Amino acid sequence: MLAVDVGGTFTDVVAIENHSIKVTKVPTNPLNTEESVIAGAAAVGVAGATIFNHASTAGLNAIITRRLPKIAFLTTLGHRDMLDMARTWRPLEALTDPSWRRSFGDAARPLVPRYLRRGIHERILSNGQVLLPLDEEQAREQLAVLKHCEVKGVAICLLNAYVNPQHEIRLRELVKEVLGDDVPCSLSSETSPLAKEYARASTTVIDVFMKLIFTRYTENLAAGLRAANFQGEINFADCAAKLVALDMAMEQPFRIVFSGPAAGAVSSAHFGQLIGDDKLMCCDIGGTS
Fold first, then answer.
1. Sequence spans of domains, the chain
2. Which of 80, 156, 162, 272 has its CA 20 to 30 A from that of 111?
3. Nearest-CA neighbor of 3 among 214, 224, 235?
4. Residue 225, strand partner residues
5. pLDDT digits (tens, 9 = 90+) for 78-93
6. Which of 150, 279, 141, 255 is nearest to 203 (CA)?
7. What are the Cα distances from residue 32, in Å, to 237, 241, 286?
8. Cβ–Cβ contacts within 10 Å for residue 135, how many?
9. CATH of domain 2-63+214-275
10. How far apart are CA 285 and CA 36, in angstroms?
């Protein structure tokens, strides 16, 4: 079995075979991270291994540093500021203060700039009934603006789409029609079909970023490992440090954004069990976070 932890500065690879442990550390290539993983795997002997488990802070570090691809956010007309406003929970003294901002969060540094958040003329009620049909002509106009802005991906979160996703599904078809099939598009009704639009919206935005960050990476990683004669299973750790098959992880890549920290926390808890100590404080200091 091989396990790898990809950090912003170093990539650590551990191999376990016949009760023998091999460890190596290689510098992370920030432009082609998969090359560091493949080099580390080759150093410990990837050929013949049956399982390859992967955790990474690449997605998390991209969000923290705001080194992100340009994406767009489509939502019901009049609600494009939901990413800034979040759940609008405020202290009593700030209820009527339009200038109030949280001391934390993304209100001052949204992941998607306001000019790339476009409102779409449509409305579905909470019972799933269509109040306003999707205005396809207006939607095409907004998508034309995004095409001019050369966005690399699109996140779609319409009000009450978790009850009736028909407008989101049609809007995705329009995205492919106007922007092209190669532009990744995530729907909130598929990514996080839950009530309350902010939770759905933020998760869907992250999903698009992770698709752009990890799709080429995982394809090159799988090809490189196969070329090194690895024929086993490739798994990714998710946000709960549970192992997810590569194909499933890329169907919902938002699940792997916290894979690095989650895997470290669970591993530390397991180590505590081995030494009989359930009161541990663990710290992982990387080059970025």
1. 2-63+214-275, 68-87+105-208
2. 162
3. 235
4. none
5. 999 988 877 777 788 8
6. 255
7. 20, 24, 18
8. 14
9. 3.30.420.40
10. 19
